[in-house]
Amino acid sequence: MRFGAWKVALRLARRDALRAKGRSALILAMVALPVLGVTGADVVHRSGQLTPAERVERVVGGADALVTALSPGQSVEQAPVAEDGAFAVQPRPGRQPTPEQLKAAGADPAALVTSLLPPGSTLTPARTGPETGASSPEGLVRTLTTEADLGDPVWRGRLDLVKGRAPTAPHELAATQAFLDHAGLSLGSTTTVQGLEGTPYTLTGVVEHPGELGRVELVARPGELLDQLAAAAEPGRPAAERAQSAHPSWLVHLPGGAALDWAKVQLFNAHGYTLTARSVALDPPPYGAVPYFRDSATYRDPAAGNSTRVVVATVTGMALLEVALLAGPAFAVGARRSRRRLALLGAAGGRRTHIGAVVLGGGLVLGLAGAALGVALGTGLVAALRPVIEEVGGARFGHFALPVPDLLAIAGIGLLTALLAAALPAWQAARRSVTAGLTGRDTVRAPNRLVTVLGVALILGGGAIAVYGAGAVRRGLPVVSTYDTRTLTVLGGSVTAELGLLACTPLLVALFGRLAGRLPLGPRLALRDSARNRSRTAPAVAAVMAAVAGAVAIGVYSTSTDAENRRDYRPQAPYGAVQLISHNDGPKAAQLPAEVEKQLTGLGGRADVGQLVYRFCDNCSSTVVLKGPADVRRLADLPHVATGDVAVLHNLFDVRDAAAEKALAAGKLLVFDRSLIGADGKAVLLLRGGGGAPLQPGQIPRTDLQEVPVDAVLVDDPAAARFAQGLMPTTALTGLGLASAPQGAVWRPTTPPDRKAQQRAAAAAVRLDHYAELTVERGYQPKSDAITLALTGFAALVVLGAAGIATGLAAADSRQDQATLAAVGAPPRIRRTMAGLQCALIALLGAVLGAANGFVPAVGLLKSRASGAGSQPALITAPWGELLLVVLVLPVVAGLLAALFTRSRVALGRRLS
Description:
Elements: H1 3-19, H2 21-48, H3 52-60, E1 65-68, E2 76-78, E3 86-88, H4 99-105, H5 109-116, E4 122-125, E5 132-136, E6 139-147, E7 160-164, E8 172-176, H6 177-183, E9 190-193, E10 196-208, E11 217-220, H7 226-232, H8 238-245, E12 249-253, H9 262-270, E13 274-277, H10 278-282, H11 291-296, H12 306-337, H13 339-347, H14 352-384, H15 386-393, H16 404-431, H17 434-439, H18 449-475, H19 482-514, H20 521-532, H21 534-568, E14 578-581, H22 591-599, E15 606-617, E16 620-623, E17 625-626, E18 641-643, H23 646-651, H24 658-665, E19 669-671, E20 682-688, E21 705-714, H25 718-721, E22 726-728, H26 733-736, E23 739-747, H27 755-768, E24 773-776, H28 785-813, H29 815-823, H30 829-865, H31 880-900
Parallel strand pairs: 6-11, 8-10, 18-22, 19-21
Antiparallel strand pairs: 1-12, 1-13, 2-3, 4-12, 5-6, 7-10, 8-11, 9-10, 14-23, 14-24, 15-16, 15-18, 15-23, 17-20, 19-22, 20-21
């Protein structure tokens, strides 16, 4: 067709769009909304992708480099930016240390770093302290600690002051916003740090790590906090150990003209230090020149982390198909309402291609407008909501990105979607007889059997492709690349299966129409009208199907993932238990539980818990464990044997068994795992460390590992085995030469205390023992409920919206039929009945088909994820409540709403003769 004919067709399409403003606005919104969403997501994604300069700035701040003593005395391999990955290379047996390793092992770290850097370089310590507690109005908040001179430009970009002022006087701190939110404090408030309770600190400023906005942290001036914490820590206590074992780091400012290259980075690595240099990050070495990339690949799963991206890509593809399906009926109704004008065009000499071009031109005009509107609104919304998006995402944008190629591609997809939506109505309009268009009499065709057979084949083939794609990498089948192949095959298979269901939809609608003869007048007319106008009904059903399929796909995936996380969750105590963790065996040991009971009422009986240890010399002990098969699956995170009485059996292990209580009273060991007890009724205690004990004159050295068999009683309870391998009564320890190390106490209240009460009790315990912790076992906390509910809400809106749109289009398309019914005396309620049942039918068919189709990608990906070595079987579950809402409740609601908002009476447009 010549260009001049296209100009005429586009002019007619533009006039038709302006004439039917309501229908045009509907199509415009359906095209613009998904373009808006994809544009916003793309701008957010691109803005969050840091350039090399932005990435290294968040590591080194305003400095030129960051040096960290990762493992002095060993070799280190790292990525060009060490924070992206680094590890110490384990020495091979028999290999002698290198000169660099020997030099680093005995050198002062700061002096060594200075000697390796260009002369004149300045070092600024980047000290990070231990995690500790800080007082709040409710009690105690866990927080990280660090020291930094916030007035020094060297920190800018790594740690920024965003509100208030930097600490300038003694006993002043800056805090992150996350700390203030957790503690319920504000600028000007005071807080005390665990271990330094006699020194109140004033909060003067709010700081943030641009790449980690959720970090809970206190920042002090250099020399104001960390040394004091280390001095206050008792020798051997966890805080002291953390302070001594932390990897020291320095920010490096180079003299003018000096630079660091990859060779210098490797020199630092040879001494056991990592070096992140701005110059190397901006001009990284070739991939093959980085040993880290070669050696660390063996520790990476090439398919790890792809499942979620594949699901998102699959749902995105379904959403694009959904837009075409939603807009298609609107174009079809528009073409049918304009059939007389189109027929006049044909009668005046226009060809079929000219008629089709007018309808297709409507897709072009509205697609261009909708795509442009969506891109503009999406970009504007991201700009307006940037602070909120950054807070929710937990990181600042590196820059506000406007990727022109991406935006043009998104606009092109929106335009293509509109053209696809208009393609079938254009083809149908071009095939319509001119006579039929002038008289308004269209023939109804039976469903094409070939299309139905093709649809069934697509369903089977698409399902097979999706399952293959999800498991291709794990099974070692030939693929082109890890990420792309899985995405394309799962996306292609799922969309193929959905297209197959779409092809079968006209037949399903026709089959429902055959049931009309057995129904009353209203339902009979509704079903027959839907079956007769399958070109309008089937796309609406498919639109609902696409929305529900996408929601079900992510819903099943997230719910199943949540179920697997719940299965793998390892509680520290039975649900609702209050656990005081304290290793204090001094004079305050008895005061701690009493103070907790004073703060928390209604705790019930107390159980004092210990841990079985082997003391092989003064101040030398090791944890005692039970010997079991080499392949035994450890239910407890840290295998050990607990010590205590019947109260421990009740409170910690949640076991109430008369035989077990009797055995415990008799001094026997209780074992909770069948594989840890032999056929002779004995369990074997493994004692480690005896070989290191000092020898007395004439004493024979003992082996480092001893096996001690003891009488044991089996309490076959896997749930109890999660907390410890066994329970040894304290009365039996003396005869075995073993001891009990205090671990704290456990209570089982009827109702778990709330978090505020827990904070108050924790603060009271810390006042007596700086290293005491108070926890409440609240069970597994699901993380996917919000996602599932949001997706269900989205699917519900689409179900109601698509069904309502199709019903409205049907009402507009059948005005002549409605006028005929009114003229022959049909009661007014018939119109409401027809609208309600048509809407319910569309929603029900689409929801059922979509729910079935949505399981395909989710199940395939879950099976794939569980097929790796050592993986547990996949748990396939679904959000049944949400599915019930979408599949059964929403169709009823859609039908009732359609009937409610449909006028009972219709005005006759012309007198019938």
